[in-house]
Write a structure and sequence with these properties.
- Belongs to the TRAFAC class TrmE-Era-EngA-EngB-Septin-like GTPase superfamily. FeoB GTPase (TC 9.A.8) family.
- This is Ferrous iron transport protein B.
- It is found in: Cell inner membrane; Cell membrane.
- By secondary structure, this protein is α/β, with parallel strands linked by helices.
- The chain is 49% helix and 15% strand.
- The protein is built from eleven helices and eight strands.
- A six-stranded mixed sheet has the order 2-3-1-4-5-7, with helices on both faces. A two-stranded antiparallel sheet has the order 6-8.
- The protein is globular.
- The structure holds guanosine-5'-diphosphate, magnesium ion and potassium ion.
- Magnesium ion binds next to helix 1.
Length: 280
């Protein structure tokens, strides 16, 4: 039969392992447990004529080079190239969870969002137009309740249809504003002219990570024959961003991502009305 390799990616406690266990019949540890070793678990299941090979990855808040978990997840995605990523997002903490989503979008891999903890969202009394957010991000969003199994068949159907429609991967671009976009454009042009690639990262992602000062990416570029040239340009652009925006480039990129998310949530998430508000 046809095989689809799927990776579960998301913040710690978003419900990745719950979905993994329910879907694959595994019995991995669920809850506030932080393992000592960073590794991934594999499980399989069959659905509608497909064999799914699921991988439960360590929880991460971002895809930079800060923690071993982040490096592990990023290199897993780039090297192992799962057919489809399921980004497990906790609906109870959308702003924080969607930060990782913006970085995953930039990796330009086939992806589906499991809007998990959907029961918590409903309990909170807030209304979330996830269909509109799905259109804004150009990523399917499927509500799930990981610990009960609600939504999992729909999630698997969505994975199949994304996998079958390959070629049409995400075309949404996270915008960083005039100053940073100018530097991104310059870096992309230089990377392209020098035919410089790293870790099979999309060019725009590579440009952004260089401008952010990502150590791992920097080390890979340094040993390239055009590396010194690229890093010299990168340093110039970082100075330009810092001078114009009066903040360090790394924070500038982080803030822009949060700004993008805040804008998207402003249009799609309504806070509960004051009458529904329980102040205790
Ligand atoms: P992981 O860190 O992403 O693997 O998250 P886990 O699967 O370990 O889940 C973290 C906690 O959230 C556990 O206590 C789960 O039982 C709980 N949980 C998982 N999915 C849901 C859900 O959809 N709704 C609710 N209310 N709790 C959930
Ligand atoms: Mg887990
Ligand atoms: K956990």
């Amino acid at each position: 039969g046809k095989v689809i390799r799927v990776a579960l990616v998301g913040n710690p406690n978003a419900g990745k392992t719950s979905i993994f266990n329910l879907a694959s019949g595994a019995h991995e540890h669920v809850g506030n447990y932080s393992g000592v070793t960073i590794d991934s678990k594999e499980g399989t299941l069959r659905h509608n004529g497909y064999k799914f090979i699921l991988t439960d990855l360590p929880g991460t808040y971002s895809l930079s080079a800060y923690s071993p978990e982040e490096l592990y997840v990023r290199s897993y995605i780039l090297n192992e190239k799962p057919d489809v990523i399921i980004n497990v997002v906790a609906a109870s903490a959308l702003e924080r969870n969607l930060y990782l989503t913006t970085e995953l979008i930039e990796l330009e891999r086939p992806m589906v969002i499991a809007l998990n903890m959907y029961d918590e969202l409903e309990k909170s009394g807030r209304h979330f137009d996830h269909r509109m957010l799905s259109e804004m991000l150009n990523v399917p969003i499927i509500p799930t309740v990981g610990k009960k199994g609600f939504g999992i068949p729909d999630l698997l159907e969505s994975v199949i249809s994304i996998h079958e429609s390959r070629g049409g991967t995400n075309s949404v671009t996270i915008p960083y504003g005039r100053v940073m976009e100018k530097s991104i454009g310059i870096m992309c042009r230089d990377l392209s002219a020098g035919n410089v690639t790293a870790m099979e990262m999309p060019r725009r992602y590579l440009a952004i990570k260089l401008l952010e000062g990502d150590r791992e990416v920097e080390d890979v570029i340094r040993v390239h024959n055009r590396g010194e040239e690229i890093l010299a340009r990168r340093n110039k652009e970082r100075d330009y961003i810092e001078k114009l925006l009066k903040e360090d480039p790394e924070s500038a990129f982080t803030n822009s991502r949060y700004g993008f998310i805040a804008g998207a949530l402003k249009e799609t998430l309504s806070e509960k009305t004051s009458s529904e508000d329980s102040t205790t």
